[in-house]
Amino acid sequence: MKLISPILALFLLTILIFGFALLKLRAQSGTPSQDAVGTWEGTLGAGANKLRLVVTLTKSSGGIYSGSLDSLDQGATLVVENGTLNGDAVRFEVDRIGGVYEGVLNKERTEMVGTWAQRGVLPLPLTLKRTANSAAPQPAEKNSEIHTPKPVGPPLQVLSPIDPWTFKAEGKWHLVYELHVTNLGKWDCLLTRLDVMSSDSGTKPIASYSGTELEGMIARPGQTVAEKAKVAPGAFAIVYMWINFDNVEDVPAKIRHRIAMKIGDYPEGITLDGVPVSVNRAPVVVISPPLRGENWVAGNGPSNTSQHRRAFIPIDGRAYISQRFAIDWVEMNPDGKTYQGDSADNKNYRAYGTEILAVADGVVTQTKDGIPQNIPNKPPVVPITLETIGGNHVIMEIGNGLYAFYAHIQPGSIRVKVGDNVRRGQVLGLLGNSGNSTEPHLHFHICNANSELGCEGLPYAFAEYELQGKGESWKSSDSHGAPAKREMEIPTEDEIVRFPQQP
Predict the structure, then answer these.
(1) Radius of gyration (Cα) for the chain, nearest Å?
(2) Which of 431, 347, 446, 436 is nearest to 401 (CA)?
(3) β-bridge mates for residue 355, sequence order
(4) Which pTM value belongs to this model?
(5) Chain-centre distance for alpha carbon 456
(6) Residue 307's pLDDT band (boundaries 50, 70, 90)?
(7) Mean pLDDT, rounded, for 74-101
(8) How far apart are CA 23 and CA 16, in angstroms?
(9) d(Cα 259, Cα 254) in Å, to the nearest integer?
């Protein structure tokens, strides 16, 4: 056998050491992530019309991206959905405003350059850069010697903060509530399936959710995660529930939940069977419309993904969803636009100056006036705080512990004061554009306390209205057929309705 000379051996050893050092350096520095998960910032437009945007993207186990788009200058948060990453090409949608972003990720996965297109607006260039506190995710190191032991039981605490109330919309009956999920264990908990069961009879689920559908029902307040259904140790998640029934007789008096999950890398799944929730089957409060006339759009109205539905806001140490069934009422012209002429002038919006009506007999418990109006689609003219978010507003107690909230009223137009006894249909003020508002509209909701946000939103029903159509692209000039009469229902997101002239 031929021997290696000492000099050659030393040379080879040097090469070997250098090679190991290079591999270690590469391992320490990491490789660019192939993912788009994280928080991205960018500016749309320029000059006085520029808008600062923050986009947060998460990814489901099926590879679909979703998240949120925060318009910092408008104080608005929109849902991002249907996102994809094909090679370097990124695409996601903001369906609420007909928005689509298409861009290309750089090699380092720190920047995406592309175009923002929106219904009714010319496409604009938009570059998004990954924020410093949202570095490209690196693959976690696995210790092959440590595995999840067999779970003693499900490590979750699951609570429902409010009992759902049976209400009618779109010709069906619905239950809307939330499950608050906290992982009290030491290992990741992946929610794989959620079944809703009647506590009255049988084992057949009323509703079942899994995969991307379940992922889309989950929110992770204060967290940016790649997989919302995977709850880390000590982490918190909200599951937004919306269950449909064909007939009110099908709604059970009590429901329970079966939650299937995987714990860490333990190979077998386990199931939590329980979490009872009582159902309130008493009729909801019946109210008159807060407005008159036609072509009123139920913007951000009741749906399981609307901004109002997901607005989980802490007030004085407790978080509420006061806007669970809130609606932003905007009025369209026959061409489908909400204004004519100069879009920067509040007076050019069809809804502006409309009389706001009391939806029931009651007593005025709170008013605020003197907040100036915003320029449409510009940043608010006053800082948005808990004191200014509703703008000029009125709150009325309407009986049985219920309160009606009317927001964004014109300054100086409020015609009632605290303590006034008000009759159904009485004029409270004029529709305006104050507070956290981007254009003239009426924000309306009903909740269980004398507060703008520190209360729980409850369903209600209008005695009657006519359904003209649905969707922001709807135009009354293109509509065909007579409107459909609705009784004892609440409109859902983006339905267009005609209210009676008399309450």
Answers:
(1) 27
(2) 446
(3) 430
(4) 0.76
(5) 16
(6) very high
(7) 85
(8) 11
(9) 17
Which residues have a Cβ under 8 Å from the Cβ of 157 and sit 6 or more positions away? 181, 182, 184
Distances in Å between the Cα of 490 and the Cα atoms of 165, 275, 462 are 13, 28, 6
**How many of the other CB atoms lie within 10 Å of CB of 275?**
19
How many angstroms separate the CA atoms of 28 and 138, rounded? 11
Distance CA 49, CA 81 (A): 26
Q: Is the pLDDT of residue 6 over 90?
A: no
Q: Which H helix or E strand runs over 208?
A: strand 207-210
Q: Would you say residue 201 has pLDDT above 80? A: no
CA–CA separation, 60 vs 56, rounded Å? 14
Q: What is the pLDDT of residue 217?
A: 97
CB distance 433 to 350 below 8 Å? no
Q: What share of the chain is helix, strand, coil (3-state, %, to 5)?
A: 10, 45, 50
What are the pLDDT digits (tens) for 60-73?
Answer: 877 889 888 888 87
Four-residue CA torsion sign, 325, 329, 335, 338: negative
Cβ contact 41:51 at 8 Å: no
Backbone phi and psi for residue 170, each to the nearest 5 degrees, phi listed first: 55, 30
**pLDDT value of position 48:** 64
CA 352 – CA 206 distance, rounded (Å): 44
Structure-block tokens of residue 467: 């359904």
Indicate the pLDDT class of residue 210, thresholds 50, 70 and 90. Answer: very high
Burial class of 442 by CB neighbour count within 10 A (0 to 12, 13 to 18, 19+): buried
What domains appear along the chain, each with residue ranges and CATH number? 38-130 (2.40.128.120), 156-278 (2.60.40), 285-499 (2.70.70.10)
Give the C-alpha separation, 418 to 420, whole Å: 6
